Amino acid sequence: MQATAYTYDAQTRSGSVLLDDGTPLPFDAAAFDAGGLRLLRPGQRVRIEVEGAAGSGTETDGRRIVLVTLQTF
């Protein structure tokens, strides 16, 4: 799945992405580290892997990002 980096905190290695429908989805340090990244800038296109199902009615819709890496073509 693709998304756009929205926020990133270098101290905690966590942040959030915006899905293509505009939904924000947070990621933690484990997801960031799994992608092997060293830095992320807001606006960068990223590839994410997500666990869980959409539609639970919560802010994150029951989904959790488990990997964030740069989108390559």
In short:
The chain is mainly beta. Helices cover 8% and strands 44% of the residues.
Care to describe what's here?
- It is a single chain.
- This protein is mainly β and 73 residues long.
- Helices cover 8% and strands 44% of the residues.
- The chain has one helix and five strands, in the order E-E-E-H-E-E.
- It has one helix at 29-34; strands spanning 2-9, 14-19, 24-27, 45-51, 64-70.
- The chain has a five-stranded antiparallel sheet.
- Strand 1 (2-9) and strand 2 form a beta hairpin.
- It is globular.
- The two termini are 13 Å apart.
Largest sheet: 5 strands, antiparallel
Category from helices, strands and their pairing: mainly beta
Strand order of the largest sheet: 3-2-1-4-5
Mean pLDDT: 90
Count of β-strands: 5
Binned, the helix content reads under 10%
Report the C-alpha radius of gyration, rounded.
Answer: 11 Å
Number of helices: 1
Described by the principal axes of the CA atoms, the overall outline is: globular
Q: What is the succession of H and E elements?
A: EEEHEE
Topology, please?
Layout: E1 2-9, E2 14-19, E3 24-27, H1 29-34, E4 45-51, E5 64-70
Antiparallel strand pairs: 1-2, 1-4, 2-3, 4-5
